Amino acid sequence: LTEKRVEEMARGLEDLAALKDPIGQILSGWKGAQDIEITKVRVPLGVVGIIYEARPNVTADAAGICFKTGNAVILRGSGEALESNKATVALLRQAIREAGGPEDGVLLMEDVSREAAAELMRLNQYLSVLIPRGGAGLIRSVVKEATVPVIETGVGNCHIYVDQSADLAMA
Question: 150 near 132, Cβ under 8 Å?
Answer without folding.
Answer: yes
